[in-house]
Amino acid sequence: MDNLSALIADPAAWAALVTLIVMEVVLGIDNLIFISILSNKLPEDQRQKARRIGIGLALVLRLALLSMIAWIVGLTAPVFDLGWSARDAEGHILYDTAFSWRDLILIAGGLFLMWKATREIHHTIDHEEQAETQAVAGKAAISFGSAIVQILLLDMVFSIDSILTAVGMTEHVAIMYVAVIVAVVTMLVAADPLANFINRNPTVVMLALGFLLMIGMVLIAEGFGAHVPKGYIYTAMAFSAGVEVLNILARRRRAKKAAGG
User: Fold this and answer.
1) Based on the number of CB atoms within 10 Å of its own CB, is 62 exposed (0-12), middle (13-18) or buried (19 or more)?
2) First-to-last CA distance in the chain?
3) How far apart are CA 45 and CA 55, in angstroms?
4) Domain boundaries in the chain?
């Protein structure tokens, strides 16, 4: 209790908490986009339930992993080494084949995300053909159980990345718990508005799938030891999202003028 009181009274602890919450929320965007796209393929009456379960699983996984921090940190120890590596002129790692369990998880998650995003892009391009096939078959684009399993797999990858980020930023487990809970609650609040926005704007779906494709490539690169600054990634995402917002506003204004004229 004394340690907790000292932590509450420590300005540095509060600064670490705020920084970690922001980082966890940003890292959670990837997870949330995937959950939104996948849940939108379900019948309308199942979508909110799938999002709630998916985000709830994310919280459970993150809290469970926090209770096993020593094991999580151990995942960064090399398991095997193929003996290949390369660095650029400044000494930065281009790739490294000394793989840890974390690297293997990131590579597997990245491959799954790239496969899923590519498949969804194909389905989006052939949307009418897919819709006709599903209508004839009388079934939804994806089953509820399949959606939950896929969400769970990506939750696991993003959760491990999230916890390792938290461990690297603070040594206080209490701060990690609070930051993770706040971040996941934020995801829960934002889930429905984001999913509905994506569903109402078809061009946003393609943009979001492009984000997932890029994130999958980054996960694979991280698995091979190449550090990709997250700031570049999220700046590019924010810029692309900003341009898309301008396109949406322009389309709405043209639609209003056409309706009024």
Assistant:
1) buried
2) 69
3) 17
4) 2-228
Q: What does the alpha-carbon distance between residue 137 and residue 239 come to, in Å, rounded to a whole number?
A: 40
Residue 104's contacts (CB-CB under 8 Å, 6 or more residues apart) are 79, 223
Q: Residue 138 has what pLDDT? A: 44
**So what's the pLDDT on residue 139?**
52
* Nearest partner of 163 among 177, 147, 149, 153, judged by Cα: 177
As to burial, measured by CB atoms within 10 angstroms (0-12 exposed, 13-18 middle, 19+ buried), residue 7 is middle
User: Helices marked H in 69-143 — which ranges?
Assistant: 69-74, 101-125, 127-137
pLDDT digits (tens, 9 = 90+) for 28-77: 787 888 888 888 888 888 888 989 988 888 888 888 888 887 677 777 77
What number of CA atoms fall less than 13 Å from residue 98's CA on the CB side? 9
In whole angstroms, give the CA distance from residue 251 to residue 257. Answer: 10
Report pLDDT for 102: 80
Q: Tell me which residue has tokens 């898309």.
A: 244
DSSP secondary structure letter of residue 42? S
Residue corresponding to tokens 């921090």: 69
Q: Which amino acid belongs to residue 98?
A: A
